[in-house]
Amino acid sequence: MDPTAPEPPPLEGITVVAVEQAVAAPFATRQLADLGARVIKVERPDGGDFARSYDTSVRGLASHFVWANRGKESLALDLKDPRGRALLDQLITDADVFVQNLAQGAAARLGLDAAALCARYPRLVAVDISGYGPDGPYAHKRAYDMLVQCEAGLVSLTGTPEEPAKAGIPAADIAAAMYAFSGVLAALLRRGTTGRGGPVEVALLDALAEWLGHPLYFGMYGGTPPARTGVAHAVIAPYNAYPTADGQPVLVSVQNDREWQRLARQVLERPGLAEDPAFATNVARVGNRDRTDGVVGVVGEVLAGMGVEEAVRRLEAAGIACARLNGVAELAGHPQFAARDRWREVGSPAGPLRALLPPVTLPGSAGPVMGDVPALGEHTDALLSALGLTSERIAALRRDGVVA
Predict the structure, then answer these.
(1) What pLDDT, on the 0 to 100 scale, is given for residue 80?
(2) Is 128 an annotated catalytic residue?
(3) Cα separations (Å) of 83 from 91, 302, 377, 397, 401?
(4) Which residues contact 392 (CB under 8 A, 6 or more apart)?
(5) Could you say which DSSP state residue 365 is in?
(6) Residue 269: its pLDDT value, please?
(7) pLDDT score for 85
(8) Strand locations in 299-347, DSSP E?
(9) pLDDT of res. 300
(10) How many CA atoms lie within 13 A of 67 on its CB side?
């Protein structure tokens, strides 16, 4: 064996079967696909994963679907038909992982809940992703991302003092996806030592509540929850955005009292503020937030005559943390991605598309497996043929609407 050859993808040889829709489960299984797992995505014949039709912004494809579904094989299969359900069982028999995020109760009615599957297939890692968990008074409530953001309190913390706002990304879905992903990896490690897989349960509410740990503890023990402060920080001051001459704001973040002293002396050019008891500590600055904002408003006067690049250079020269308030267009063209060669191309039904490399880098490995975004049912014939079905039988199933 060549010691200089790259290591294979870490999940090479792992097969995942997913009955998934929307974002939470698809984003979880995309992480597995990027690490080399074979992911078979089971979709309804009549339109497939409903996230396929959210929008048409990516050359006619839906942005959510493109983001969360690369590297998968699409099998269009009617699970309510006994023939379709039997074919799914054949796939699960040889799978290592099964993931589902059907509506609460739907998986159990089909015999696809994690407990039932793991009882039948002891080596299988089976994942149930739900909105609020398998029981309790909220178990059967609809759990779309924004609903869970509201229930988890995220919306109460995001926005301005006058108006709350949801997060601009599906935060509850993403949180659940990443815990499902890490849960699968943990269960596979356990199977390596015990020989048994087992159920994995992830609820969107639980996942997002974990992410709200800081404001949760702040509110439980501090008496009041953190206030909504827009771009400003609830417990650090000064930490806000200021305009520049070219209209792009720059965020200024003072994390400790030494930085405050440098800001006062080198940027504000008001050295007396560095030792003023009303501003000398973060506790004092937060307690006097209105006065602090008024004083640091001078930064706006200083920076307002500069372009954002000059403003950033001046702040960085003083050792003050700062950032441009980029939009998605600036993110897409971010120089850090270009310098680190983070963009790749993946195939899709609409042709090649740009895609960022996954955030986890494994030096010495062959790199992530960034496969194509599948068309609905693109792999149906190949998958069913591999199960031993003849072309005539596949054609008959297609005529009956069992597959597509």
Answers:
(1) 96
(2) no
(3) 13, 71, 17, 8, 11
(4) none
(5) B
(6) 85
(7) 97
(8) 321-324, 343-346
(9) 66
(10) 16
Is the confidence at residue 299, as pLDDT, over 90? no
The yes-or-no verdict on residue 3 having pLDDT over 90 is no
CA distance 331 to 347: 22
Q: What is the DSSP string of 57-124?
A: TBTTB-HHHHHH-TTEEEEEB-TTSHHHHHHHHHHHHT-SEEEE-PSTTHHHHTT-SHHHHHHH-TT-
Instruction: Answer yes or no: are the C-beta atoms of 188 and 14 closer than 8 Å.
Output: yes
The chain-wide mean pLDDT, for the chain, equals 94
Q: 226 to each of 153, 156, 212, how far by Cα in Å?
A: 11, 9, 11
User: Residue 365: what are its φ and ψ, rounded to 5°?
Assistant: -95, 170
- Say if residues 349 and 375 touch (Cβ distance below 8 Å): yes
Task: Give the strand pairing for 198-203 and 125-130.
Answer: parallel
* Catalytic-labelled residue, pool 34, 49, 78, 173: 173
Output Rg (C-alpha) for the chain, integer angstroms. Answer: 26
Confidence at 260, pLDDT banded by 50, 70, 90: very high
Give tens-digit pLDDT for 6-64.
899 999 999 999 999 999 999 999 999 999 999 999 999 999 999 999 999 999 999 99
Contact 310, 324 (CB under 8 A): no
Q: Do 55 and 62 contact (CB within 8 A), yes or no? A: yes
Count of Cβ atoms closer than 10 Å to residue 316 Cβ: 11
What is the C-alpha to C-alpha distance for residues 293 and 107, in angstroms, rounded to an integer? Answer: 53
C-alpha 41/C-alpha 76 separation (Å) is 8
